[in-house]
UniProtKB/TrEMBL annotation:
UniProt-recorded name of the protein: Nucleoside-binding protein
Protein's organism: Oryzisolibacter propanilivorax
Segment forming the signal sequence: 1-27
Keyword Signal tagged: yes
UniProt-listed PANTHER family: ABC TRANSPORTER SUBSTRATE-BINDING PROTEIN
C-alpha cells in the first residue's frame, strides 16, 4: 500500500475514534480517553540488505568428500544467519578460465563475499579480485593474498596422521598406499603425514603412491586403487574427492579411509575411519566478521585444535590399543603438546629433514616437496634434483 494512503487512512481512523471518545465523555460513561484507542505503531526501521555469498566448487556436491563438506558449511551458515544472508553455489567448476567467468558472474549477481574452494583457482581469484575491489574473496588452500583476498585451509595432514596410526595397526602386509591427486605441497604433506602415522606404530612399514593428476575422477581413482592392491597394499588412504578408492577396497577385500567427509556408509566393510573436515567454524567466523564490517585478510590454517578436522567413525575391529593411540595424538594436537612433524625425520634418500625434537614450522610445512623415508619413488617434478 502507498505510504501516504496508509497515513491518511490512519489519521481518519484516529479522528473517528477521538470523536467517539468525546461523545462518550459527554454522555457520562466515565471511560479514560487514553484507553479508548491504541497508540499508533511506530514506523518500522528500514531492513538491511542481505549479505549475498557465493561458493564455487571444483567437484560435484555429491562427491561425499571435499565439496560435500564445503556445502555442509554453506548450509550451516545459511541456517545460523537466516535472512541476514543469502548463499548460492556453482559446482563442478574447472580450474580454468571457467573459474574467472563464474566468479565475475557471481559478483554481477550481487555477491559481496565469494569462496573459491580449490587450489587451482588461485590465479583467477587474483585476477578477478584486482578488478572488483568491493568484493571480498576467500580462497581455500591457496597462498596468495591481496587487500580483498584471504586464504584459508584445514590442517588435513593432522587427519591423515591419525588415519595413519589406524593403518599402522591394521596392515598385515606392512605396505600401505595412497591414491594422490596433484603433486602440490598440500597433497605431498598429507601423504607423508599418513605414512608417519603408520610408522609411529611400526617403523618398518613401507608405502606406495599412485598419482591420478585430477581431484575428481572416479575411473582413474579406482584404477589407481586397483594398482596399489595388486602391488601388495592392503590399507589405502586417498587425497582425491570421490568414493572410488573406498569402494574399490570394498570390492577387493582391502581396507581404506574416507577423506574430507564421512564415507562410512558407502563401503562399511572396507571403512577404517574418515578424516572429516568441518568448515563451519571458519565460515561462521568469516560471515560474522563481514556482517560486522570487520572482514580480515591474511592466511588462516585451522586444525584439530579449532575443531576443523578429526578422524571419525573408527571401525569396530580396530584394536583398542590403536584407538587409544589415536586419542592420545588427538589430545596432543588439541593442547599443543604434540606436533605431527617432529624430528628425527628423514626423506627417502636418507637426508635429515628435522633433527630429533625439532618441529617443522609453517614455512617448512608449506614447502614440502619430498617423500619421507619408507615411501617408494619421488615426488613428480623433483626427479633428478
Amino acid at each position: 500500500m502507498n505510504p501516504m494512503r496508509l497515513l491518511n487512512k490512519r489519521s481518519l481512523l484516529q479522528h473517528v475514534a477521538l470523536s467517539a471518545i468525546a461523545l462518550a465523555a459527554l454522555a457520562g460513561c466515565g471511560k479514560k480517553e487514553e484507553a479508548a484507542a491504541p497508540a499508533a505503531a511506530p514506523a518500522a526501521a528500514p531492513a538491511q540488505d542481505k549479505l549475498k555469498i557465493g561458493f564455487m566448487y571444483v567437484s560435484p556436491i555429491g562427491d561425499g568428500g571435499w565439496t560435500y563438506q564445503h556445502d555442509l558449511g554453506r548450509k550451516a551458515i545459511q541456517e545460523k544467519y537466516g535472512d541476514r544472508i543469502e548463499t548460492s553455489f556453482v559446482e563442478s567448476v574447472p580450474e580454468s578460465a571457467d573459474a574467472e567467468r563464474v566468479m565475475r558472474d557471481m559478483a554481477g549477481q550481487g555477491n559481496k563475499l565469494i569462496f573459491a574452494t580449490s587450489f587451482g583457482y588461485q590465479e583467477f581469484v587474483q585476477k578477478v579480485a584486482a578488478d572488483l575491489k568491493d568484493v571480498k574473496f576467500e580462497h581455500a588452500t591457496g597462498y596468495k593474498q591481496a587487500d580483498n583476498v584471504a586464504t584459508y585451509d584445514t590442517k588435513t595432514f593432522e587427519g591423515a596422521y591419525l588415519a595413519g596410526i589406524v593403518a599402522g595397526g591394521m596392515t598385515k602386509t606392512k605396505m600401505v598406499g595412497v591414491v594422490a591427486s596433484v603433486p602440490i605441497p598440500e597433497v605431498v604433506r598429507n601423504i607423508n603425514s599418513f605414512v608417519l602415522g603408520a610408522q609411529s606404530v611400526d617403523p618398518s612399514i613401507k608405502a606406495k603412491v599412485v598419482w591420478v593428476n585430477e581431484w575428481f575422477s572416479p575411473p582413474k581413482e579406482a584404477e589407481a586403487a586397483t594398482s596399489l592392491i595388486n602391488g601388495g597394499v592392503d590399507v589405502m588412504y586417498q587425497n582425491t574427492n570421490s568414493l572410488a578408492v573406498l569402494k574399490t577396497a570394498e570390492e577387493r577385500g582391502a581396507r581404506a579411509f574416507g577423506k574430507d567427509g564421512d564415507m562410512s556408509a558407502f563401503a562399511p566393510k572396507a571403512h577404517l575411519g574418515s578424516a572429516v573436515i568441518d568448515w563451519t567454524p571458519y565460515y561462521s567466523k568469516v560471515v560474522e566478521d563481514t556482517l560486522g564490517g570487520n572482514w580480515q585478510g591474511g592466511n588462516f590454517w585451522w586444525g584439530v585444535k579449532e575443531g576443523a578436522i578429526d578422524l571419525l567413525k573408527i571401525a569396530d575391529d580396530v584394536p583398542q590399543e590403536i584407538k587409544d593411540r589415536v586419542a592420545k595424538a588427538r589430545d596432543g594436537l588439541k593442547d599443543g603438546s604434540f606436533a605431527v612433524w617432529t624430528g628425527p625425520i628423514q626423506d627417502n634418500t636418507g637426508k635429515e629433514l628435522l633433527a630429533a625434537g625439532q618441529k617443522g614450522d609453517d614455512k617448512f610445512l608449506t614447502g614440502i616437496n619430498f617423500f619421507v623415508n619408507g615411501i617408494e619413488g619421488r615426488v613428480p617434478g623433483t626427479e633428478g634434483k
